[in-house]
Amino acid sequence: MKRFKTAVLAVGLVFMAAGYAGAQTPAASTGSSSDLKAIGAGLVIIGASIGIGMLAKGALESMARQPEILGNIQTAMIIAAALIEGLAFFALVIIILEVLFG
Question: Any idea which architecture 31-101 has in CATH?
Answer without folding.
Answer: Up-down Bundle (1.20)
